[in-house]
Design brief:
With 615 residues, the protein is of the alpha+beta class. The chain is built from 17 helices and 32 strands.
């Protein structure tokens, strides 16, 4: 920790930018974060003293804390998230756009004096291993101690990062990192200055929120929110929206993907990168536990990352991937020892919980954690709660922030600067009909088409929405930092840079029968799908060609020991219906209309090919 009197850096551009932020925001004090345990202990105690944190029972949850946000600040604010590119068409129709100069003028007024009465924290952080060619160093300036301690978990922060940036600048560090000597400036404020004598609140924020990205200058400015996705600027803002722009220009990919490692009984290790929209089992797959049958045979699974993957063509000719994050910022409700035991083991200590309930013995609880709720809780808004009170105890978007290193299945190479080689890319959505349990794309172009058109059926009871598919290309709709039509083009172009292309697959764990019952058991049994995928990647499994892709034969799909699952059930899971696919193709065409001009016509041809095969 340091004050402005003794800034601990000689990096000229960094000093100039911080001085400019101080002059604009006018904080009462400035601290440069060093990432130490002493800093963690001091700031967490400060948050406890201020009422933002409740220290959990150290015997049940060591070194862990509960935070309750303001009810108006509980999630990402997509309608207040902007891409301020030079031209509107560069942001595309799926992003909110604002003219850069006008937005800067507006934000300058918002940030003017916004940190009065508060401390400004300067957080040097790195997304990805420092020695990775894809590593990105950012500097987040914030007036939120909550942001600082969450960043301690989610990224590498502090003195080590700052020294690397300085060494790069003076030329004493090896030139391995793209962006050598440069940093991404990230300015954040909760937007609630304090007048002299004014009492603070446990969760300061402002109803007027702006989450703004300037792709050309690689800048991020966030105002008014203290919530993770809006305030932890290394995550969605840098690692996806800004990074996707950098990736497009430098022939790599910043994707909303998990990375999972699988070792078969022959000790052969493979890695898959998987993209799923929300509520499609992403975290459960990332931390999948092999069923007893598979574990006894010697199958093992590991996790490299649960949310974001940066992928690039490696010199070995394969696509390699790193996880740029150091922690998990996961949704709590529904997480339990039944659904995700590895996640639960990751939460045993050193965690921050936000907007979950507090038990009478100083632990946390949320819906789905146990079959029976406790008789009494303090809910996420600080009120007494009982099972019959008619309210949820925890907000549906309540979160945990946990160190990735605590996951019992963390991959030995999860911090390898060279990343891990990707053998397969898997897309999927929540579809009650139409999509088979698993099928393989014919080629790279067809695989990109599957990712570009994937989505989930809406389940809300509003008139006309049930069964309607919400498209979420590559699960990147809210996170692509430029025109999504051009994003598809970048995906297609990447095949020119990879000698050994990964295979593409589409999965659907959620298909239902005529009685609205799931056809596939899911969870750990998804290992059977993964086994077929890996066998296809390695050339060990047969598939049969259909109009939509390669599907498994029953005899080549492992159903041994799967109770109450017949060959008839298998064919129900794998069925594709021409009428349903005609409707699906119509919906895909409608989605493409807004993206038509910048979208590569190769995807239009892919749709025409599928149509021709189905006719």
């Amino acid at each position: 920790m340091s004050t402005t009197d003794t800034p601990p850096t000689t990096h000229p551009q960094l000093l100039k930018w911080v001085e400019k932020a101080i002059a604009l925001c006018k904080p009462d004090a400035v601290e440069w974060c060093d990432g130490s345990k002493q800093e963690w202990d001091r700031l967490t105690q400060k948050l406890v003293d201020g009422g933002t944190f409740t220290r959990l029972n150290p015997e049940k949850r060591p070194n862990s804390f509960l935070a309750r946000s303001a009810p108006s600040d509980v999630a990402r604010v997509e309608d207040r998230t902007f891409i301020c590119s030079k031209r509107k068409d560069m942001a595309g129709p799926t992003n909110n756009w604002a003219e850069p100069r006008e937005m800067r003028e507006l934000l300058t007024q918002k940030f003017k004096g916004c940190m009065k009465g508060r401390t400004m924290y300067v957080i040097p952080f790195c997304m990805g291993p420092l020695d990775s060619p894809l590593a990105k160093i950012g500097i987040e300036v914030t007036d939120s101690a909550y942001v600082v301690v969450n960043m301690h978990i989610m990224a590498e922060v502090g003195t080590t990062v700052l020294k690397r940036l300085e060494d790069e600048k003076v030329g004493t560090a090896p030139k391995v990192r793209h962006g050598h000597g440069f940093f991404i400036p990230c300015l954040h404020s909760v937007g609630m200055p304090l007048e002299a004598g004014q009492e603070d609140v446990p969760w300061p924020c402002n109803d007027d929120k702006y989450i703004v990205h300037f792709p050309e200058t690689r800048e991020i400015m966030s105002y008014g929110s203290g919530y993770g996705g809006n305030a932890l600027l290394g995550k969605k803002c840098l690692a996806l929206r800004i990074a996707s722009n950098i990736a497009r220009e430098h022939n790599w990919m910043a994707e909303h993907m998990l990375i999972i490692g699988i070792e078969n009984p022959e000790k052969q290790k493979s890695y898959l990168a998987c993209a799923f929209p929300s509520a499609c089992g992403k975290t459960n797959l990332a931390m999948i536990v092999p069923p007893k049958k598979y574990a006894d045979e010697g199958w093992k699974t590991t996790i490299v990352g649960d949310d974001i993957a940066w992928l690039w063509p490696h010199e070995d000719g394969k696509l390699h991937a790193i996880n740029p994050e150091n922690g998990y910022f996961g949704v709590a409700p529904g997480t339990s020892y039944d659904t995700n035991p590895r996640a639960m083991e990751s939460l045993r200590e050193n965690c921050i919980f936000t907007n979950v309930a507090l038990t009478d013995d100083g632990d946390v609880w949320w819906e789905g954690l146990t079959d029976e709720p406790p008789a009494h809780l303090i809910d996420w808004q600080g009120e007494d709660w009982t099972p019959n009170c008619g309210r949820l105890s925890s907000h549906p978007n309540s979160r945990f922030t946990a160190p990735a290193s605590q996951c019992p299945s963390i991959d030995p190479d999860w911090r390898n600067p060279e990343g891990v080689p990707i053998d397969g890319i898997v897309f999927g959505g929540r579809r009650a009909t139409t999509m088979p349990l698993v099928f393989q794309a014919f080629n790279w172009s067809h695989g990109v088409y599957l990712g570009a058109t994937m989505g989930s059926e809406m389940t809300a009871a509003a008139a006309g929405t049930i069964g309607k598919v919400r498209r979420d290309p590559m699960a990147m709709l809210p996170f692509c930092g430029y025109n999504m039509g051009e994003y598809f083009g970048h995906w297609l172009d990447m095949r020119r840079h990879i000698r050994h292309l990964p295979r593409f697959f589409h999965v659907n764990w959620f298909r239902k029968d005529e009685n609205d019952k799931f056809l596939w058991p899911g969870f750990g049994e998804n290992m059977r799908v993964i086994e077929w995928i890996l066998n296809r990647c390695q050339g060990h499994a047969v598939g049969h060609e259909t109009q939509i892709g390669w599907l498994p034969y029953f005899e080549d799909f492992n159903t041994s020991g799967l109770e109450n699952f017949s060959e008839e059930d298998f064919h129900a899971c794998m069925k594709f219906d021409r009428a349903e696919w005609h409707a699906e193709l119509t919906g895909q065409a409608e989605f493409f209309i807004d993206l038509y001009d910048p979208m590569p016509k190769e995807l239009i041809y892919q749709r025409e090919l599928i149509t021709a095969r189905l006719s």
